[in-house]
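Tutorial, part two.
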Amino acid sequence: MLNIRTYAAIDIGSNAVRLLVMTIIEQPDKEPIFKKRSLVRVPIRLGADVFLGGEISKENIDRMIDTMTAFKLLMTSHKIETYRACATSAMREAKNGEEVANTILKKTGINIEIIDGNDEAAIIAATDLHNLIQSDKNYLYVDVGGGSTEFTFYASGKTISSKSFKLGTVRLLDDTVVNSMWEDVEKWIKTTTKPYTKIELIGSGGNINHVYKYSGKTIGKPLSYFYLSSYYQMLNSLTYEERITQLNMNTDRADVVIPAMRIYLSAMKWSRSSKIFVPKIGLADGIVKSLYNDRLKQS
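Running the prediction step on this input gives:
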């Protein structure tokens, strides 16, 4: 007898806000099946406010309230059993981040948790990442966001080290990243990966997902450093408008994709990786998985 549950995750990032609705199909004596029912993405770009001005603007507070009201209605329509809303870099650094979260709770009933970089990395690790990681290989996992990038290094099937850096696509666009940040990331990657050979990258985030889809690769096949480098050069040769019209990019993707590719390529170079795997996972997937795992522990 199948048991069907419906969970939701809200991911409040520095570039966009997402609602993921997931159906979980429980079967006797088998692993549950997680199926995406709905994904709604709203490009509010909180990071543009915070990384330049230090706080979330009145306009974007109003947009957040409208978005969370809509998400609440959608969750009701989907008959959600439980949900979790997590905010990352932009709300974490905003002077009025807690105040905005309290306002949203009062106006919409949505409770937002502002999480740190380590929590973010741990939540993502709750995804199906372990299915990709083979015990005889070494991997650098890179999750590029608008405000920060989370790095986790795996060797022999185990987590060796994990670190979050304030190196994100919206920060780079707004020119709020100091050169020493790149140096810190380079040093961490080289120091962490130096004792190991045959390192492969695992990349997550909307930008690398778009590039992977554009490549036409079969699911599960990696992209090469050469392909990513060529794609990066092609992006730089096009105007913002051409990236929208010729590459079918969203208007809020066509600018951040270039700094995102720079981060992935740098990580590949510094870790001596020649290929990058792109599973379709992210923070929202991890939120649902961690909610489900928590329920199993309590039952």
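The chain has a mean pLDDT of 93. In part three we will examine how such features are distributed along the chain.
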